[in-house]
């Protein structure tokens, strides 16, 4: 458990993304089903910046388990659909996660980024291979290795 999660629990603060799942802030939600929810980022880094979160609370890429592999594939498929709806070709876009302690909310959230970045600094925040950011394909590969006998 991260220090942010511990502090929030200690102070009885609910997870902001769990609040969105519960329907307390529906204004930005653009998709929802029984497994996941998608909404616009409140501080977009790129022309299109959508977050996709699991309905179930999964803390981060560090706590995700092999059984969640199919959920990640479903999130990827929805990300591609949303990028196409917003006029982007998914293969030219970024899909990934911030790695604790560099994440801002301790609820797994896939960043779906399409189009031009607003600044070079915002682009750097979402660069694959940095210690603070993991591409979705990297996480899927990691889980695939864990599932092998």
Automatic annotation (TrEMBL):
Residues 16-126 form the HIT domain. SUPFAM superfamilies: HIT-like. The keyword Lipid metabolism does not apply. A motif (Histidine triad motif) lies at residues 107-111. This is HIT domain-containing protein. PROSITE patterns: HIT_2. Keywords: Hydrolase, Nucleotide-binding. Pfam families: DcpS_C.
């Amino acid at each position: 458990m991260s220090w942010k999660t511990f502090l929030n629990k200690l102070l009885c603060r609910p997870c902001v993304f769990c609040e969105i799942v519960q329907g307390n802030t529906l204004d930005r939600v653009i998709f929802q089903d029984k497994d996941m929810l998608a909404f616009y980022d409140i501080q977009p880094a790129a022309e299109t910046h959508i977050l996709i979160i699991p309905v179930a609370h999964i803390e981060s890429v560090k706590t995700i388990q092999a059984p969640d592999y199919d959920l990640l594939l479903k999130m990827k498929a929805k990300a591609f659909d949303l990028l196409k709806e917003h006029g982007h070709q998914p293969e030219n876009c970024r899909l990934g996660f911030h790695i604790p302690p560099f994440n801002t909310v301790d609820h797994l959230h896939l960043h779906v980024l399409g189009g031009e970045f607003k600044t070079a600094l915002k682009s750097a925040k979402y660069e694959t291979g940095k210690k603070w950011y993991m591409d979705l394909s990297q996480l899927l590969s990691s889980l695939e290795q864990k599932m092998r006998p």
